[in-house]
Amino acid sequence: MSDKVSSAIQKLWTSYSKNTPQSLQLIDAYLVFILFSGVFQFVHCVLVGTFPYNAFLSGFISTVGSFVLAANLRIQTNPDNAGEFKSISPERAFAEFVFCNIVLHFFVVNFIG
Amino acid sequence: MIRSLINIISWRAFLLVLLTLVLVQADDFVISDVKIAVTTSDSVRKLYESIPYPSSFDKPIQLTSGDDFKMIFVVNDKQTQKGVQPHQAFLTLTSEKNGNQIPIIIRVRENGKSKVELDMKSAPDELLSSPGNYSLDLIIGTFSYNDPLKYHVATLEIDVPIQSSGHSPVVYGPKPEIHHIFRPDEKLPPIWLSYSFVAIVLIPWVFLIGAWACIGVNVSLLARAPEPSLMSILFLGSLLAIEILFYNYWTHLNIFQTLTWLTGLSIVAFITGQKALSDVQKWRSLGLR
Fold first, then answer.
1. Of A20, B41, B190, B223, which one is least surrounded by beta carbons within 10 A?
2. Is B195 on the interface with A (CB under 8 A)?
3. Interval A12-34: pLDDT, tens
4. Residue B246 is nearest to which of A94, A98, A109, comparing CB atoms?
């Protein structure tokens, strides 16, 4: 059973690393990074309490927002979806990603207190 | 000639002023037939006196528990000597000890006849809880007469055992100062926990850098780009500058300074970004990446 699972995971991993474009892998790494940043902040909040509530909220919301933006970037730059986003080049998607991130960071820093 | 004219005019003016004064003075009332009586609890009349109006009763009137004080009088117009019903008429008992005032409302009939009673069996709590000498004044005021009237009738000597009826006498004066108490500080978690979580939150950064290194970030393209990649570097630099600006906003800048800087930096970032990304697009179409 465990052999099967591990072999399935191995197969998934090799096909992922073979078939996924490098830029998407970079985004995936970034997504995992964001995910764990948020998870650790949440764990801290559960363990310690919400005392600097603004700080917790802004930190957590910033991870959530970054995750959403990065996921959108991944969707728009995926060559498989190119048909759906004909008018949006990967560069334009990246520019939008940068712009939205700046706006998000401005609000997060404004709220952090 | 002119002088005598002025004389006549000024004399007439003086007369007019005098007349109005007289008229104003005429709007006045007087009190008459003031009679006071004190009856004890066993219906013995202790005191019965009539007081000629402007003067006061010279001896203090002693009231012990169970006594009933009565006072009658008539309110008249000074000129017509007809009865007047004023809008407001009451007795005030002013403590000579602490200045507290106790009002008793008087009902005056249409013909000016008035009657007021102070029964010690049902006297106000303030009176019973602080016996002593009280100044008894009659106060009458109404709209159609200019001057209200305050007439010191007599002095009352309230002689009852002190009753603590649960009500403390009303004392007007400054209340004790209210000190503001700040909410106690929130308890901070132990410092080692905070530091360990700082370390834990930094772990994803290690992962990110490691993963990107594994996948292979193609920085080398910057070096072997067909055109100078100054724009890309400027673009990334302006983004970094914006993030540093946000950090400074968090630590010490105010929003106006921040917005000024942000305007300038975002213009730089926009122009360089457009250039840089169109370069990148060109490389992509050339098949360099």
1. B223
2. no
3. 988 888 888 888 888 888 999 99
4. A109
